Amino acid sequence: MDAVHERALAQGYDPERIHQECFSAEVETGGQPFEVVAATSGITVQVAANQTIVEALALAGLKVCVSCKQGICGSCLTDVLEGEPDHRDHYLTDDEKADGDQILLCCSRAKSAPSDYRSLRIF
What we know:
Keywords: Dioxygenase, Oxidoreductase. Its EC number is 1.-.-.-. The protein has 123 residues and is α+β, with helices and mostly antiparallel strands. The chain has a single domain, classed as Ubiquitin-like (UB roll) (Roll). It has helices spanning 2-10, 53-59, 94-99; strands at 34-38, 43-47, 77-82, 85-86, 102-104, 109-110, 119-122. The protein is elongated and about 50 Å long. The mean pLDDT is 86.
């Protein structure tokens, strides 16, 4: 799929006009711990190094609509109110990722360096 995508770009196709669908994907979900604030409910959760945002929210009693758990279906797409997402999905376009105002909770994380604890404020 990457080769076809690259060939289309080389032929001058607008990136927004190139569509591809993944039916499975490998995604790295681990990383530095961070905090997520669910603005609607007022609940703050700690997301551990080996945990997804979906898992952390579930432990706090918040249910998130999630289907693939691989960042390809978009069912867990959520607005980011504050913070910088570390996008690990295959769903959002590069432009949407650059906007930084949405995140897929099944696989993406908050951007943070080991010495810089960060948080995300979502929906």
